[in-house]
Amino acid sequence: MNSYGTRYRVTTYGESHGLAVGAIIDGCPAGHRVDFEAIGRDLERRRHGAPRQEEDRIEWLSGLLDGVTLGTPIAFAIRNRDARSDDYENLRNAFRPGHADYTYHRKYGLHDHRGGGRASARETTARVVAGALAKQLLHPVDIRAEVDHLGPERPDDTRGGTVACRVLGLPSGTGEPLFAKLSASLAAAMMSIPSAIGFEMGAGFAAADMAGSEFIDRWNPDGTTQTNHCGGIQGGISNGMPIEFRVAFHPVVSLPSPVECLTADGHLHTLSLGGRHDRCQVLRTPVIVEAMTAITLANFKL
Amino acid sequence: MNSYGTRYRVTTYGESHGLAVGAIIDGCPAGHRVDFEAIGRDLERRRHGAPRQEEDRIEWLSGLLDGVTLGTPIAFAIRNRDARSDDYENLRNAFRPGHADYTYHRKYGLHDHRGGGRASARETTARVVAGALAKQLLHPVDIRAEVDHLGPERPDDTRGGTVACRVLGLPSGTGEPLFAKLSASLAAAMMSIPSAIGFEMGAGFAAADMAGSEFIDRWNPDGTTQTNHCGGIQGGISNGMPIEFRVAFHPVVSLPSPVECLTADGHLHTLSLGGRHDRCQVLRTPVIVEAMTAITLANFKL
Amino acid sequence: MNSYGTRYRVTTYGESHGLAVGAIIDGCPAGHRVDFEAIGRDLERRRHGAPRQEEDRIEWLSGLLDGVTLGTPIAFAIRNRDARSDDYENLRNAFRPGHADYTYHRKYGLHDHRGGGRASARETTARVVAGALAKQLLHPVDIRAEVDHLGPERPDDTRGGTVACRVLGLPSGTGEPLFAKLSASLAAAMMSIPSAIGFEMGAGFAAADMAGSEFIDRWNPDGTTQTNHCGGIQGGISNGMPIEFRVAFHPVVSLPSPVECLTADGHLHTLSLGGRHDRCQVLRTPVIVEAMTAITLANFKL
Amino acid sequence: MNSYGTRYRVTTYGESHGLAVGAIIDGCPAGHRVDFEAIGRDLERRRHGAPRQEEDRIEWLSGLLDGVTLGTPIAFAIRNRDARSDDYENLRNAFRPGHADYTYHRKYGLHDHRGGGRASARETTARVVAGALAKQLLHPVDIRAEVDHLGPERPDDTRGGTVACRVLGLPSGTGEPLFAKLSASLAAAMMSIPSAIGFEMGAGFAAADMAGSEFIDRWNPDGTTQTNHCGGIQGGISNGMPIEFRVAFHPVVSLPSPVECLTADGHLHTLSLGGRHDRCQVLRTPVIVEAMTAITLANFKL
User: Kind of pairing, strands C74-79 and C58-60?
Assistant: First the structure.
């Protein structure tokens, strides 16, 4: 299903080269005056450096009266004005390597060859809008993500990297034990971002090589801890320290040089991928990481 | 909430030192003859080397008639026979470092000091039973997890490590795009296991340093790929290759030597942790990783 | 929340006098060629005789390629072109009797005075579209509702009535025991329609006065029954006989003559209700009953 | 699925003639001291006059410490001590008229012939326990149901009837618009009770014959209304007046005289139904109506 969350539920729609992308945000409390400029700034961060330039004008279809939320579902649409479906015409019957063309075809029996359909990064536009609104609702909780490691430059100029995210001001006691642990929820949220391939809290994989006496975060008398190896979450529930996690992104799989594609009848053809693609999409992911974090936290906090 | 899954839904119950732990399994199809011995073997793997020895006799309360599933909910109970709550008496008002005592207290206003309550590894017993049944329903899909890296031996003899899991025979087309991606669902499932602190698919964090031309898995004409850097999942949907992922576990936080605990009124006291605890719980986690994988896949496949 | 269903999930949005109403339909299988004319005919039935005349042109925002479903979420918008919000200006601070103004105000702390906001019958437009599509997916199951009783004509010309619905061709075995009984699901679906105030299956309230020997539906050897007092559902699961139920609708509460309205500060004012309203909205409800039935059945069948 | 509710979630288990019936209650807040006697009184009301006499001793498996809720899932089991499965031996291959034997068989491919399995009234024991606890959490909201109409006495001594339920003290603003309307949720809850066949709010079916000017509930200046034809709910949300609804129950379908049963291979056999059955089960339903009402309200209020 295309919904995320139970209390602040975001249901996105739209194919990369269809008429529009957007979402319905359900569960937003009434009476919040929306800061549209802040939403615009986050959209601008997501668009930064993207070869496809969309104006990303948001059409608010419902849920607002004079810029204030009504408590009813907020629907919005962002038109796909700069879509060039023709670029993809040679891919109508071919599966690109590294993309979801093949798996979508296996699942649905057909796929939208026009720019990845739902699997495209274009869909994240809707998440950024919903996330930017969630950030406002979470105020004064502060969510900041940034690229903390960029893969080395390569001849094909495609690079992966990792994004570190830090949440300040989240009260202790946020999260649920067991299956809806805050850590598990954040992991799912991050792994739902296109190109995400790894997630770790606090000390993460490095913790596997620590001794217990090294790993445990020693108390200060005020309930804070001297270190934060656990990333601010214990037993799935926030402890009042900063929430800290990292997400690994693999490099873009739309290569500039021709690649061997598979056809439905089992032949390999070397094709140039049309369309316009990032060479380093990881630079645009921090705002998406922030958005999914905000939506996740809004589900626990609202 | 204490439920996991929507189609094969497991709702667990029980505190570490209460009367019993167990679960209701909802969504199991009718007509399956249960292999009780296979369930027993998985329980034995979970118990292996644990200082607390429970017989783990399963009492099947409902859902079966002559050993065959009825399609009705399967409830079971495993009594806590070897619980020694007195061991924890000195912890009634203290929060251990590295444990969930403090966060539970902050969330619920009270906590069950007897061995971690719900946050205890004891709860995973119910998951192993539900997972062992799920494996049978998934036949011939094969799920195997093992410790692939153990942290170095330390003076306090507590070690973390990583567990690698590999799923063979899962048909392509399993999973959902976007928010219920198979990768996102597995990430959440794994991060819900006590002590889990990191998750990666296929090449994982190493993929951040790869070039796109190195990362993409090149096609064979039959739809398999020459490498499996994506871990068998593209766009959140299985591609027919083995599903491969790794989970990082931090070392146990119940140290053998006394540690400074925090009291509710803000004092630090050096206490010896009673109870009997693993020194290397990671050795017992592969069967839990398998169980959560099986339950997750059962939710997509049933 | 504004979502209905788990497998064929309809999330509606839009206030009566906002920019648009519409929905996202999630879970529609891929590959279905949409019969747009059939959807138009159902919209026409809903609009029949309504004093407010909307063209009800559907803008399909996503989920379709060349008129065929992609398996991705289907979003659509219907603009509110004929909205006259000014008609409601005198109601900005008043609660009409019989309407949801007061309860919305109590719940949200504010209400959209413009024509009932979300509580308006305008929202059912989105349901009718989603239901008309569901009918196509259920083919050859046949769903027919009609007014079977109309309240007597009254001086204020406002009448209630009952609608009878009959579903033919639904296979036996549809439904779930216990809480998601087909009968319970249909009851909830019907009672979610504006003005619905009663629901009964088969013999319904009259069954309270029958003897058991009179009520039970005697078998024919082929598994059909000689009567259908149970309305085609036993233990919450369809038995292959026609599904038969009735829904009671109270008369419209927007009276033509002035009524006493309550203000937020506790005064009563006699006001004329502006806006244009039905005098006998029950005549337009059969298509909504069909739509909610179709959406409900699609959730069991898909 | 066998779960009801999202915040106060009750998952029941157990076949009529299996080892036990019971439930897991998830979402009960921590710190509530349970009134076990009140639970026992409700169980006694449910058992009243039943031909099968169970002691109904509740075994609390988890979620409590010294009689106080921990905020963790509350699991309980009630053993089936007085089950006489042999009574049903002649029904192993036959479908009784009016029962769910046939529909279960069509759905699952097999059925539990021992007293109706899950479809039996025995399952409501678990609901009564969960409901009795919910009532305590809702204090001081007061829920009272009683038989307000009993069908006429008949030669076969089986009678249906209707139950009226009244909820006092529920604050205005409880409920959700649209699909999770309080009225829709109550309708589903009531229709999930065995033998329920009709539901109406306030004036109910009689409202179909009222004029709008007769039906609307006129305001008092304090926000109460002079009548309560809407049953205390407008637009799906409570208005602070008593919640009032009625439920119709058909007569028992286990007749004292032999009935024609259908076999799986299409033959009709006249059989005497073994087992011990009520002649007038409607007398025992008020406490179940109260329980389902309480569980439903707990989901809105907690």
Answer: antiparallel
C2 vs A74: CA distance, rounded Å: 11
- The reported pLDDT for the residue numbered C51 is 62
Q: Partners for C (CB, 8 Å, 3+ pairs)?
A: A, B, D
DSSP string covering C69-112: E-SS-EEEEEE--S--GGGGGGGTTEEPTTSSHHHHHHHHS---
Query: How many residue pairs bridge chain A and chain C with CB atoms within 8 Å of each other?
Result: 136
Q: Which of D159, D185, D209 sits opposite C152 (nearest CB)?
A: D209
Q: Which residue has the higher pLDDT, B157 or B83?
A: B157
pLDDT at residue A88 is higher than 80: no
CA distances from B194 to A88, B190, D290 (A): 46, 9, 39
pLDDT-flagged residues of chain D (< 50): 115
Judge whether residue A115 has pLDDT over 50: no
Q: Which of C3, C4, C24 to mutate to test the interface with A (most CBs of A within 10 A)?
A: C24
Q: What is the pLDDT of residues A98-110, one digit of tens each?
A: 998 899 888 877 6
- Rounded to whole angstroms, the maximal C-alpha distance in chain A is 67
Q: Which residues contact B80 (CB under 8 A, 6 or more apart)?
A: B14, B16, B17, B18, B19, B20, B21, B54, B122
C-alpha closest to that of B273 among B121, B99, B43: B99
pLDDT value at residue C85:
57
Q: How far apart are CA C43 and CA D238, in angstroms?
A: 31
Task: Please answer whether residues B222 and B281 qualify as being in contact, where contact means their C-beta atoms are separated by less than 8 angstroms.
Answer: no
Mean pLDDT of A55-80: 92
Side-chain half-sphere of B162: how many Cα atoms within 13 Å? 19
Which DSSP category does B96 fall into?
P
Domains of chain D: 3-301 (3.60.150.10)
Specify whether the CB–CB gap between B269 and B261 falls below 8 A. Answer: yes
For residue D54, the distance in angstroms to the closest alpha carbon of chain C comes to 22
Stretches in chain C below the pLDDT threshold 50: 115
Calculated CA dihedral for residues D38, D41, D42, D47, nearest 10 degrees? 160
- In Å, what is the CA distance from A103 to each residue of A116, B175, B200? 11, 9, 20
Measured between beta carbons, the chain A residues lying within 8 angstroms of B209 are 151-152, 160
Q: What is the pLDDT of residue A256?
A: 84
B13 and D63 within 8 Å at the Cβ level: the answer is: yes
What pLDDT sits at residue B274?
62
Can you tell me the distance from the alpha carbon of C6 to that of C301, in angstroms, rounded to the nearest whole number? 11
pLDDT in tens, C135-179: 999 999 999 999 999 999 888 888 999 999 999 999 999 998 888
Mean pLDDT of B32-56: 85
Nearest to C74 by CA among C126, C118, C17: C126
pLDDT at B283: 93
Count of beta carbons in the 10 Å neighbourhood of residue D43 = 21
Complex-level ipTM: 0.94
User: What is the percent of chain A where pLDDT is above 70?
Assistant: 90
Continuous segment of H or E residues that includes residue D149: strand D142-150
Residue B138 dihedral angles phi and psi, to the nearest 5°: -85, -10
Chain D positions touching A177 (Cβ under 8 A) are 72
Nearest CB to C30 within list A3, A59, A109: A109
Half-sphere exposure (Cβ direction) of D14: Cα atoms closer than 13 Å: 27
Interchain CB distance below 8 Å, B62 and D112 = no
- Give me the residue from A106, A191, A240 closest to B172, CB to CB: A106
Question: Chain B residue with minimal CA distance to D24?
Answer: B13
Q: What is the pLDDT of residues A119-135, one digit of tens each?
A: 677 889 999 999 999 99
B128 phi/psi in degrees, rounded to 5: -65, -40
Question: How far apart, in Å, are the Cα atoms of A139 and each of A131, A143, A167, A169, A297?
Answer: 13, 10, 12, 9, 11
Q: Is B21 close to D62, i.e. CB distance below 8 A?
A: yes
